[in-house]
Structure formats: structure tokens, C-alpha cells
Amino acid sequence: MTVNRRQLVLRRERKEVRSLLHPRLFNFRILARCLFLTAWASFSVFAQPPNVAVGSALRAPELVELTRLDSTIHLDIRYATSRNFMGMPMYSIARAFLQRPAAEALVSANRAVAKHGFGLLVFDAYRPWSVTKAFWDSVVPAKRSFVADPAKGSVHNRGCAVDLSLYDLATGKEVVMPSPFDDFTRRASPRYGGGTVVQRRRRDFLRRIMEEAGFSVNKGEWWHFDYKDWRKYPILNVPLENVSP
Prior knowledge:
Blueprint: H1 3-20, H2 28-46, E1 63-65, H3 66-69, E2 74-75, E3 97-99, H4 100-114, E4 118-124, H5 129-138, E5 161-168, H6 197-212, E6 215-218, E7 221-227
Parallel strand pairs: 2-4
Antiparallel strand pairs: 1-3, 4-5, 5-7, 6-7
Helix pairs in contact: 1-2, 4-6
């Protein structure tokens, strides 16, 4: 998003906040959301990701839209909705991108799970750095192990991390895992021993397929997988609506 568009968002949010001050419309939860978005819009106009040393080891970014490579990869982009730990949309569109090698590896993983009656259900992939910063600022320090430090940037910011689960090819429905996506408890661990046998078996099956495709699971989140070459890409802060597929 350009600076001009960010400024338009900022003015729109300020107008919404002013309208909420009317006694008949006053709502603390909505007001808090608007205030946060106003501050975030202001920050996003000027904020920049941390510097990364430029050298021959860094590859030029080539973000690819996942559903264009394989339409059987389903999307449930939670940060384009209010069904996430922030309780508000963080993206203006529901699309998913990865760097081309990671995207092609994910397509291979999707073909592998299809042989067993499943498909991949993607919750998030490439994430602009400004959204990572907003996550960090909103989470209490005790829970920051579940979000990336913006001072370092995240693998999502490099277009090499994907959050996903499985869906049943026969029904199209998401399968049940030991925890839901973005669970901030011990149930999120890929080694969690609770839940049912079937839930753990599905979680472990997903991990095996993803690892065979060149990804590694996050130690605290069963749904989060990092592509093996993520260190070779720079931190990006391009809004999803500005990414050219």
C-alpha cells in the first residue's frame, strides 16, 4: 500500500472513531479496535523492517500465489477476518504467497497428502513485516514466544513460512487437530501428547509430509512450517494487495 493509501485509511479510521463518541453508538470494544488500527496505520506509513545485509547470498524475491500453482490448495486466511488472536482483520485481502521454491515444494506436499485423502488448508503464508510488528506490540510479554520479534524479522516476512492444516477431500472440511490454529497453550506444540490418537496421528502425518518436502516444523506450533532456504531471502514489507503474482 502506498503512503497516500495509508493516509486515506488513517483518515477513515479517525472518522470512525469520532462517530463512535456519540452516546448511542459508544462501544468500548469497537473503540479500542479503531484506536489500534489508527495507530497501526500511522505506524505503517513510516515503519521499515530491520536492515539485512545485502550480498550475493540473498536471492531476489519471487512471491508466487499458491492457488495459481495448485487450485486444490484451500485457503482460510484468518488474518483477513476477525477469527484470529487479534480479533480484527490484519489483511485487506485473503490471498497466500510464498517464494517460488517454497511454493513449488508446498504443491508437492499437497500432492502427497492427496494420496491419503487429504488436501492442504492454508491459514497464512507471506506476511508483511508491519503486521508482525503489530502482533508483537499487541501481545503481552509472557506470550511473545508465540509471535516473531520484529527486530529480527520472521520467516513469514521472507515469504518462506506457511501456517496450515489438512482438509478432508471427501467433505472439504478441516480436520480436527490436537489444538486449533493460533492456540497460545502447550497444546500447540508438535510434541503435545494430549488430544485423541486420531488427532495426533493427523498432526504427525502432516509434519512428516512437510518435512519430506523441505520444510521444518516450528517447535511451538504444529501448524507452522519454515522452508529450508529461508535465510537466503530478505525481509519484506509489501502489503498483500501490492504483491504481483
